[in-house]
Amino acid sequence: MILDDLKTTRVFALSPAGLPVERTVAERLIASAARRAHVELQSGDIPLTPGTLRIAVTGMLHGASQQGAWMYFRIDPDGSGEMLASDAHWLFPLCSLVLEEWGGLDAREFPNGVLIIPTFSWLRNLSDFLVGSLRSAEHFDREKYMRQLARQGFSHVTVNGLGVQRPFESGPPGDVYSWFYDYSPDLDQFVDSDLLRGYYPADYLQANLNYLKENARLALKYGLTPGLHINSPRSMPEEFWSRYGFLRGARVDHPRETFRPRYTLAMSHPAVQRHYRELVGRIMHEVPEIGFMHVWTNDSGAGFEFVSSLYAGRNGGPYLIREWKNEEEIVRKAAANVLTYYRLLRDQARQVNPLFRLVCDLGPFYAERRYILPELGDGLDTGEFGFFMDPDGTTYSQQTLRPDVMVHARVEAGSTNVVGIPCPRLLYERLQKVRMSGGGAILSGANPETLAPFDINNEVLRSVQLFPSRPIDDVLRQNATLLVGPERAQDLVTLWDLADCAVRAFPQDIPCSTFGFPWFRFWARPFVPDIDAISEKERAYYERFLLATFNNPARVDLNNDMMWNFLSVEEAGARKQQVDEAVLPPLREALALCESTVGQVPPASPGRAVLHDLRDRL
Question: pLDDT band at 395, cuts 50/70/90?
Fold first, then answer.
């Protein structure tokens, strides 16, 4: 068996310039099987001796160049062999396969080794656990999460969460807009520039930079490529404008959500461009392994001058375009300004990391997009994940882009309001749809195992990434057997299927069940016909933390956020009927089955904890 063969390995050979993940994998193999082995640094061209297994990231396989993304494993009975990968992020999942799935196999059945081609060459996490407010969730463990992502076959990870509890941004009494600065912080929250020095406290910047650097170190330990998800270009501190008012660009706040205007810099001014080059250069100096940035904008205190979707309407500074120009001229200038920023970020970062790529979220640019899309390429990529501001809901096709543009697909893998809700077949179908369309880049979720220890969605994603032709029924049955044993495996699969039915049927266009759920504190607030009948004093326990100003009707009207009336009475009635008829029946059936199955499982059985956990989440 392969595990027995590993026990005869005496040396794990790493290259002298080896990556951190190579040593991580070697140490894991030593701890799991090859307990008498040790690590040596050897040149890759030295022939393998009996008992020596080479671990390396390389572009060569069997003496020839191997293109694309791949991972390869071979071992002989004498403990010699190879564990190779085209990229650092494939070594740890390969090691996990060897130890978790292949250990009981006879290596003689695979004399030429095993070659695995991952389904998606770029698989990145979609979550707030490292860049947003969920970074402070109880029991969240950063290193365990990085290890989990690597095991699942993720390749890239965003690492730029704040290292403090709250952002530096503030506002007048009653203003809540600073809360929108808690996630996806911009570059100036980690390093400064000559222009900005002194406006953010040094200890604040250092705490954030330390957090980012530690996240990046953990990512590299498991072979993941670290990157940034930034809301950018973001507004400047209010005090900044007292000195540099002539650099004022666009108003980027939401006038109905704040009591103080926020402004970003005038991007076309040379001093501003120098400022951003300094920020990029300094953050790349601190973490040269940063491989990408994803730019989201025109939201949460960020935005570009004169683009059509600014909350305050088209506006900007004095350097981009003069007043009274027609719509077409404004659109062209605004698009060119956006591209100037994108190219600046890419070009400056590539001075340190030539492989750096920029993911451009074009959702807000529904008027300017037709001028931006043809200019993408050479490391400027995009993705279909931000079209909620587009009036007609249209997207774009790959045919409008240059061939070298990577288009990232967003695949939802659960709910952040209730972590770990299973929808395995739905997720499988979504991933397979992207695969069959030829997509190679995915932005998807992964629930931390420290918060959702039995999440089947995680295993489905891993299976599609590493073994895309494996039937979903096999994936579910295998994992159910591991969790609750063969006697209760089918019951658990049935529970997952019922939950999957409920998730599929749940209406996806109810704002208060998505982003509005935490904003308006639905976990804690009362549900009564007339909330205003409750005194403000009695409501204070949750209204103090409501993401709404005092004059926002959301305080007493669950269907209203300032001038947004989410659903009409008829629309709400149709969705209630859908929930009553298609969501609640499978959910109630699942809860009943869960209760009856728990009663048949011995108290000491590990399966009992699995069923209890699932019942609580449902």
Answer: low
